[in-house]
């Protein structure tokens, strides 16, 4: 019986899956830098009010998914359920000069029912373009997402876009929607019935089939856009077309967080089942002001790391043995030389390892095998006298001798370092 197991909804990333995670993170980092983003790191927990203020009292996150706790000084703290609020708090607190483009890779925590692609701890890869008002920024962020998924060879991706208007036009729309929902209350699922008064817009993207059928007749935000919002949306669409990015307008895409205005978008995969959103984002021109800063336009997105990994074609890890050299010594007399050699290999950028524990050749070869090393370098007494090392290819079993001074230059191309 296992004495300790991981908490429900959490995951271990063990090799080689941890390597695939690294590949996804590195792909994201490289792309973020290419688009002019710089890394920001914020705390794993923040004051609870920050999330209530930003994600919104009507969001599922705040209502039922936050990991909140009191610390020993009775402060209410919350493990971040998403990356955006901490970034904005940090930008304001550190008085960063805007415009600024920031990216992050962070664990997030949401207490939701675990299933494929939905976890209680998961990683978000996010970018935030702060101080950029143009609709073209929104399209550029969408392009960023498409390029990211294409670099990871993810097929079956659809970009969904919508506009949910601004403070002005949304007010008018909200009234129309409320009237419709109140009239049709009985036909909605219990969750939606509750949402009507708290967050009516969220009813639109309920996953329940009955609700969706009924909602086909509901008024949608795009029909009520003011002329500025209409122009903004047209520019987003034109820019997507100019960039030859396929997209679908989804009138019900309102997103689960309260801070969005105008553009909302999501990257949806046909490989994931119910949790099909690989990433999403949109414009949030009011959030910085609501958190105490000056009025500042902003737009951003976050991609789910685990869902990205699930949608990838196969485990993209190098096949065959690891790019690792195992240094083997045959008696205590050679240990010093072996330790120094291992260190020189490492200095030269060659991944190298040795075992201090047993002088037995057979045991050390077994350990090299367990470590999945590509090569073993054998430091033997008799070989040392002749100024050579043994080099064993652990894939083919072939063994040759190499003059000691040539070892590093001969190993480098073999290991592609
Ligand atoms: P979000 O749609 O709530 O947006 O989350 C972004 C992505 O995180 C989702 O598309 C999904 O891939 C992943 N995700 C969310 N919840 C889970 C979960 N329980 N398990 C696994 N993956 C999950 C945001 O959080 C916004 N902050 C995005 C944004 C940035 N908007 C503007 N800037």
Automatic annotation (TrEMBL):
This is Histidine--tRNA ligase. The keyword Secreted does not apply. The keyword S-adenosyl-L-methionine does not apply. Its main location: cytoplasm. Keywords: Aminoacyl-tRNA synthetase, ATP-binding, Cytoplasm, Ligase, Nucleotide-binding, Protein biosynthesis. InterPro entries: aa-tRNA-synth_II, aa-tRNA-synth_II/BPL/LPL, Anticodon-bd, Anticodon-bd_dom_sf, His-tRNA-ligase, HisRS-like_core, HisRS/HisZ. It is found in: Cytoplasm. It catalyses: tRNA(His) + L-histidine + ATP = L-histidyl-tRNA(His) + AMP + diphosphate + H(+). One of its GO terms (cellular component) is cytoplasm. Homodimer. Residues 24-351 form the Aminoacyl-transfer RNA synthetases class-II family profile domain. L-histidine binds at residues 82-84, 110, 124, 128, 255, 259-260. Pfam families: HGTP_anticodon, tRNA-synt_His. It comes from the Bacteria. Belongs to the class-II aminoacyl-tRNA synthetase family. Its EC number is 6.1.1.21. GO terms for biological process: histidyl-tRNA aminoacylation. One of its GO terms (molecular function) is histidine-tRNA ligase activity.
């Amino acid at each position: 019986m296992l004495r300790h197991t991981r908490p429900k909804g959490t995951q271990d990333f063990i090799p080689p899956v941890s390597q695939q995670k690294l590949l996804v993170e590195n792909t994201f980092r490289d792309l973020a830098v290419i688009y002019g983003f710089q890394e920001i790191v914020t705390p794993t927990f923040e004051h609870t009010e920050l999330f209530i203020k930003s994600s919104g009292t009507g969001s599922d996150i705040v209502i039922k998914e936050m990991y909140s706790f009191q610390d020993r000084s009775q402060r209410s703290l919350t493990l971040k359920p998403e990356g955006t609020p901490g970034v904005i708090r940090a930008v304001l607190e550190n008085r960063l000069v805007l415009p600024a483009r920031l990216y992050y890779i962070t664990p997030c925590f949401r207490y939701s029912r675990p299933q494929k692609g939905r976890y209680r701890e998961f990683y978000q890869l996010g970018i935030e373009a702060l101080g950029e008002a143009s609709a073209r920024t929104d399209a550029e962020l969408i392009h960023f997402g498409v390029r990211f998924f294409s670099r990871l060879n993810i097929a079956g991706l659809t970009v969904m876009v919508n506009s949910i208007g601004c403070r002005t036009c949304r007010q008018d729309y909200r009234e129309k929607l409320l009237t419709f929902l109140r009239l049709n209350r009985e036909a909605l699922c219990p969750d939606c019935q509750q949402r009507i008064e708290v967050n009516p817009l969220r009813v639109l993207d309920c996953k329940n089939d009955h609700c969706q059928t009924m909602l086909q007749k509901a008024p949608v935000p795009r029909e009520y856009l003011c002329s500025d919002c209409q122009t903004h949306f047209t520019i987003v669409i034109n820019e997507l077309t100019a960039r030859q990015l396929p997209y679908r307008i989804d009138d019900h895409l309102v997103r689960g967080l309260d801070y969005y205005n105008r553009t909302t978008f999501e990257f949806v995969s046909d490989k994931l089942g119910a949790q099909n959103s690989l990433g999403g984002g949109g414009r949030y021109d009011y959030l910085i002001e609501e958190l105490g800063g000056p009025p500042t336009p902003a737009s951003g997105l976050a991609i789910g790391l685990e869902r990205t990994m699930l949608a990838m074609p196969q485990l993209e890890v190098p096949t065959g043995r690891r790019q690792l050299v195992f240094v083997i010594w045959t008696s205590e007399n050679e240990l010093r030389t072996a330790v120094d050699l291992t260190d020189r290999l490492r200095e030269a950028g060659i991944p190298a390892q040795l075992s201090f524990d047993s002088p037995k050749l057979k045991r050390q070869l077994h350990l090299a095998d367990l470590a999945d090393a590509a090569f073993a370098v054998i430091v033997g007494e008799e070989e040392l006298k002749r100024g050579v090392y043994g080099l064993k290819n652990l894939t083919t079993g072939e063994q040759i001798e190499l003059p000691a001074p040539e070892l590093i230059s001969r190993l480098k191309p073999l290991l592609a370092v």
